[in-house]
Write a structure and sequence with these properties.
26% strand; UDP-N-acetylmuramoyl-L-alanine:D-glutamate ligase; four-stranded mixed β-sheet; alpha/beta; 302 residues
Length: 302
């Protein structure tokens, strides 16, 4: 049996993205796509468990360009489709609407994957429930993108809004790697200071906390705050920023210390954001980007 570095549970999304100037593009998104490509591009053996309706989403086609990925498909009555309307040039403010969504994952349909990390990458509350965190924690290290537990879709309108995670104090101690963005961290903690929010989330039980922002990526491990800047020269590939960064970081952490893993993740996501779609470059591309745009002094912690 293959031992995977990462086993990613989450659905692809049929995204309809409109920028602040009114330009609309349709693309396949979803944390499982961006995360899967990022980990695999760095050479990490990766298994993905995408769930969708085969009538509307060709899962095999989505992952056909990726190397080092094993795809195990799950069928759903509907696929997830999300409309994103960005209100600013930096794409930090957006309005989201769920046009359709999958039937949530259940523990009964999750294969017994031999993986070092179980990465839970749902897109909204109900895709992956707390029971799956408990299940995954018995199998491997657990990585959670908190978006899938905070973002809620109105059953009638599909309008999406963010709400605190009621079970966070009981769930966070089960999580090895936790990822939020700055806005989600504020919802969870009530704090606008990212470093203080990370310390609070660690204090509640998460063992290693990542908070992404349009200017930098921050990590806290209970000892020091580590940061690396985002260096993208354009934002044409902004979609999937957090997913790409988190997945590359946690898989690199299997062999590297925080400083090196964070440097690789920040450089990879910066490069990815310069081109739409998931990252399909190589480790060599990332290393070249680091040499050109990053210095060794950054990211040492404080």
């Amino acid at each position: 049996m293959t031992t995977f570095d990462s086993f990613i549970i989450g659905q692809p999304s049929l995204d309809i993205n409109t920028d602040y100037e009114g330009h609309t593009i349709r693309e396949i998104g979803g944390a499982v796509v961006y995360s899967g490509f990022a980990a695999a591009a760095l050479g990490h053996p990766t298994c993905v468990l995408p769930k969708a309706s085969s009538a509307t989403v060709d899962v095999d086609q989505i992952f056909s360009a990726a190397k080092h990925i094993t795809v195990v498909k799950l069928e759903s009555p509907q696929s997830t489709s999300i409309e994103n309307i960005y209100h600013t040039a930096n794409k930090e403010r957006r309005t989201c609407r769920a046009i359709s969504r999958i039937q949530g994952y259940s523990t009964a349909e999750i294969p017994n994957a031999d993986a070092k990390i179980y990465h839970l990458a749902g897109l909204m509350r109900g895709d992956i429930d707390n029971e799956i965190i408990e299940y995954a924690q018995k199998k491997a290290m657990v990585a959670v993108d908190v978006q899938g537990f905070l973002r809620c879709a109105d059953e009638k309108t599909g309008g999406m809004s963010f709400h605190d995670w009621p079970e966070k104090l009981s769930m966070l101690p089960l999580i090895r790697f936790l990822k939020t963005d700055a806005a989600e961290a504020e919802i969870l903690t009530g704090l606008t200071d990212r470093a203080e929010a990370a310390r609070t989330l660690y204090g509640w039980g998460a063992q290693e906390v990542m908070i992404t922002h349009n200017t930098e990526v921050l990590v806290y491990d209970g000892k020091r705050i580590y940061t690396q800047p985002i260096k993208s020269r354009n934002l044409s590939g902004r979609s999937g920023r957090g997913d790409t960064c988190f997945s590359s970081y946690i898989t690199e952490r299997l062999k590297e210390d925080i400083v090196q893993a964070l440097l690789t993740a920040a450089a990879l996501v910066s490069l990815k954001m310069e081109k739409p779609g998931p990252f399909n470059g190589t480790r060599t591309d990332v290393e070249a980007y680091i040499k050109e745009f990053y210095t060794t002094e950054a990211g040492q912690g404080r």
